[in-house]
User: Fold these one by one.
Assistant:
Number 1:
Amino acid sequence: MTATVNNSPNLVSSPPGTPILEARGISKAFGHVQALKNVDFELYPAEVVALIGDNGAGKSTLVKILSGVYRKDSGQILVEGQPVEFHGPVDAQRLGGISTVYQDLALVNVRDVASNIYLNIEPTRFGIFINFKKLYADAQEILHRLKIDLPSVKVNVGELSGGQRQAVAISRALARGRRIFLLDEPTAALGVEQQDKVNQLILDLKAHGSTVVVISHNLEHVFKVADRLIVFRRGRRVGTRLKSETTKEEIVGLITGAIKGDAVEAAT
Amino acid sequence: MSQITRARARFRMPSFMHRLLARHESAILIPLILLVTFFYLRNPAILAPITITSILRTMAFPGLIGMGMVILMITGEIDLSTASVMSLTAVFAASLIRDAGVPVWQASIYALGLSLLIGFINAVLTVRVGVHAVLTTLGVGLAVRGFSYLFANGLPIYPLPEEVGYLGTLRPLGVSVVFVLMIIMMVIVHVILNRTTWGAAIFATGTNKLAAQIVGINTNRVKTLAFMLTSFLAGCSGLLYMSQLPLPSGDPIIGKNLELDIIAGVILGGVSFFGGRGSAIGTLFGVMLMQVIRTGMVVAQFDPYWQIPVLGLFMLAAASVDVIRHRRSER
Ligand SMILES: Nc1ncnc2c1ncn2[C@@H]1O[C@H](COP(=O)(O)OP(=O)(O)OP(=O)(O)O)[C@@H](O)[C@H]1O
Ligand SMILES: [Mg+2]
């Protein structure tokens, strides 16, 4: 099946080589809601892929399956061509090198910035006592590298603005791995200036060899950072385009269904 | 327009008030001092050394259990069965000693094992089966209390060998063994919550389950251990309570009405019903406040029937502060 797709005109939409992460025929239902229907997905080294689609199209669900939060109903996940099972987010991190920033951020509001970034991987003394000095220094360094200004790494996350919280969530992902980043609407809560920062960060990550998946409703941004665009509609993948070969009009058409999805993909 | 201004003004509290609300363990010192002053004005005997010792001796039981409860409640769960566990461990140990001739130390270990088992059952029903902790532990508590009465045929189990009362006669720090245990546990729990990776896992579990899970914290295990610790401390409390009785006996009535002191004390001490908030030091003061009210009302010669309603009102006040604070943090 993969072979047919690769021989099809769709070939132009995929970089050559083995995907570092691949999903085949993923389906997921929540009760009567079929959130994903037989979805294929592939990621190549050092690319930025945008997942786009209307509300409820299934983007977050796919991200949560790839990051081990949800279990798929059927389908297969492969890392470097090898089939794997993710029994939880830690598996996805360890086996797939996947770090995720969730749409709802999932932060511990009552703890400070540094403790959130290093939650469960805190530097310790004697394996149990948190080494706060190192914790704060490390956190400072990560934020510095992201060029993020926070009042202090010791301030509780619950007291931060939306953009600052987003920064903490991204830093937490960054502290755990550098291979693949899944960013679910990373700019949704941000002001213009901080949106630009996140976009720059995505490009920086790519420049350092990371692969980034970014979900966004903002086509402006998507066209700024993405190499490939994958469009979802009602739980199906309806189109894949290289940025260099598509237009916003075409993408909008795919999102709304005004343009019929690619036969190869829509039929699966 | 004027409405908007008014709404804004309401949120702009004086900053010291703000800070007091944020750090509950200091906030609780104010009512504590006010109450002691109030009782002192009615009868200075409240500050007599013997009264203070009595307060410390009595509060040590709910205090010791509270040091487990604070962890449990930070993870977002609660245990209403602890007072019953006190009763059953005492009765069980007493019956092993008197009826089966088991040595005292061995019987104590079995009884503590039983308390751990009850904590584990609470955890399984709550965490695995998914029954709300209030219902689980209420049900388990009733069953445990019932077993205790059945086991003892409704009567105190005695006579017991003199060793049973040994720990109860000791007066370390001029108070009691339970009190010292409570202080030690307070220090340990304080360090765990504030200085260790366990503490980070405990707060994460109670604040944002998804956050805990995505970084690989096993929230079910955290909660299970918290349930077991709480129940274990209740077991210790039960045994030491028996030891401290004038005539040590396995009395099924042990721990009766103590639920209120434990839960209310912990909530007064700043633990949140919504999880994610609480401290060991606050818990100490919360439990102390409950006992000051109890003892103070006796010393100041109020009608004893006022005790429970007054304690209930204090708990409601603390719970209201908790809800208000929770809403503010939700914004
Ligand atoms: N935990 C859940 N329980 C029940 N239904 C869910 C759950 N998560 C997602 N769904 C449903 O699955 C469908 C896909 O949701 P998903 O969150 O993946 O969409 P999305 O593409 O991320 O949308 P948005 O752009 O609004 O974030 C929706 O119909 C949603 O209601
Ligand atoms: Mg989404």
Note: Residues 25-330 of chain B form a domain with the ABC transporter involved in vitamin B12 uptake, BtuC fold (CATH 1.10.3470).
Number 2:
Amino acid sequence: MTLDGLRPGQTGIIKRLDPNHPSLIRLAEMGMINGQSVTLIRRAPLGEPIKVRVMNYDLCIRKSEARAIHVDLIEEVVNA
Amino acid sequence: MTPSQAVLAAPVNKTKKSPVLALVGNPNTGKTTVFNALCGARQKVGNYPGVTVEKKSGTIKLDSGTVELVDLPGLYSLNPLSPDEQVATDGILAHLPGMAEPDLLIFVLDVTNLKRNLYLLSQVAETGRRMLVIATMTDLLQSEGIETDLQRLEKSLALPVLQLTGKDSSQIDLIRKAIATTLSQDHQRQNYLTYPEPINEALLSIESKFPDLSRFEATTLLFDSQKLTTDAGTEEATSFANQHASELTTAGHELSPPSLATLRYAWAEEVVKSCEKREGQAQTISRKIDRVLTHRVFGLIIFAAIMFLTFQSIYTWAVPFMDLIEWGTGSLSAVVSSWLAAYPMGQSIVVDGMIAGVGSVIIFVPQIVILFLFVAVLEDSGYLARAAFLMDKLLGWTGLNGRAFIPMLSSFACAVPGIMAARVMPDPKARMTTILVSPLMSCSARLPIYILFISAFIEPQFGPAWAAVTLFGMHIIGLVLALPIAWILNRGVLKTPDMPFILELPAYRIPKPFNVGYRAFEAGKKFTIRAGTVIFAFSIIIWALSYFPRPEHVADEVRASAPTAEESVMNNLIAAAYLEQSYLGRSGKAIQPIFAPLGFDWKITVGILGAFPAREVILSTLGIIYQIGEADEESADLKSTMLAETWPDGRPIFTPLVAIVLMIFFALCSQCMSTLITVQRELNSWKWAAFLFFYMTGLAYVVSLGVYQSGRALGWG
Ligand SMILES: Nc1nc2c(ncn2[C@@H]2O[C@H](COP(=O)(O)OP(=O)(O)OP(=O)(O)O)[C@@H](O)[C@H]2O)c(=O)[nH]1
Ligand SMILES: [Mg+2]
């Protein structure tokens, strides 16, 4: 599944990034690297963009970026 | 310059006198705060990424002499994505025009976000420059449940690590000493990363063959085959690196920018482990605030409510201050009038020209100050980035993204910094669109015009609620029209490609009273100085145009035509006759037919013409025009004079409809020389500056025309 598929509050571990995504490098530089955990915190009022937490800071990305980030769901965090 | 050229081009300038230091670091880590503390400067700070978008210089006094300190924009990586990051990258690599090669980089490190900050630090260290670290936000560690051992950090980095919170003078002293020491020492190059052995060998082999390359350049050559291939002087190095790269790839090693990022973060992780302990979740308070402010249903409503309340308070809070200023200028002109009664022309230039012209602008200082108080609170609290988050989707269809909303919101204060702030846009075409629509946002110079007309024609008839709604509407109309215009520009004219939207959301912070107060004070001061200089000069010119020519026969004709009039009435009639045949009156009447379909008379027309260099000038023009003929009396205020103005057939000139149309015209029209000059400079093109002028002015005319004519058709005056 991709980061976009998480529900608010869910955390995943990054498996891989889409190698062809145009923002691949910047996403990696912002901390989206394999093995990192990333939590989807909330979606904006119109469903997009989404706010995620990676490396203890908050980042806002669009679905198109989130779909390039493949994750394994690990846990449910109730307190979003 | 493309990033690839930036990495290997030759340094611009090596000869210099005093040492040059540069502040580098991730966006929003406190670089400008450090700059202000060290240089005693007052550059703008704010709690969102991308406050600083150009270099700013200051000096620090050390015992050994002064050194220059350059504040650079923030950046996430030495692979810059946007023009502001490009400026920072060029500054670090010594390719920035007007900036000498830095002798020392002061790396500003936000300790609450250690790991991601270390990513950039690892890149910057590899450029081989001398470095020193200043840790910021140390005051937030405790509340965030983080324990950071800065001594261990110092050891892991093998760099001096200092701290700065606020303007602590003992910390500043330590920093000064550390700067002096570091500058005097030979410096050790740091290679932090550990590479798998074959990669390491390849790097060493590249470096021994091309000793001029920094470690950063060598790794870039090896890990990013798509970069660095264009520069002629480095073809050899590139092909040598590519050879190594293909051998390594065949042997099963992954060589790509993301794999390099992984290696950097592996190092960062080690450092973090060595010096940081974290308990619980980070930013819990910010998250609670966000749960409300960025709520899925209420988020946008709250945003609109915040905007509405802002303008509502500007309107109501300023009233007592305005009354005070009005009373002041009124009494001043009465006193001066009686002093100068013996010199009619002198009296006219001082009372009708200077006091009326400048006074009608000065009266709006309270609103400007209050507006900037609100803007500063929004910027310093961290809400601005949330506004970008909320608005992204609404901007998406136009080809812009939430990032563009930050320059657009800044433009509500003033378009000039707003246009500069468009440097955060990653795509040049999207940046151009952002620049071209930002001046449509209603800047603080428009505010006085709205207040004048709303308080004269809307509030008395419709009450304070509608006054607030009108003020809000005037601020929204530009924003709403900016969307279709951005769509046309992006999709139709420029063919802007799709852009990523990756925006850091900083933690909320309580705005610093000093920062907020200073922004407001400075805005008020600037506005007052402008009123005393530019507006003053225009007031005199406009007064002169309204006073001359002054042939005797005009007065004689008036006396002859109404021989029985009382003296005060007679004087007013004469003044009005002179005004009508003055240069100002003649040109206004000649051009008025263009504005007649909008419901404007020749006096308003003159006001509009005078406002093209700077929109506030309409206030002094109206102040001057309506003051004339009132000079002998206790001068009536501008509002009541305007209310009394009539067409020859006795209909009032200013109806609520005309007031609305005039406000809309000013909301949309391009009437600011500084904006056009800034656009020219940022886009390096007069063509686009001219385009901006014509499209905005045309839009203002068309929309005003539409509103006036439909208003008339509906029978609204
Ligand atoms: N609590 C706390 N806040 C700080 C500290 N240093 C800076 N700030 C705040 O952090 C925010 C960012 O500060 P700036 O100095 O504008 O940061 P910058 O690095 O210049 O930001 P950009 O120009 O956008 O890259 C502002 O709201 C500052 O008031 C600090 O040591 N502690
Ligand atoms: Mg700054």
Note: The first helix of chain B runs from residue 3 to 8.
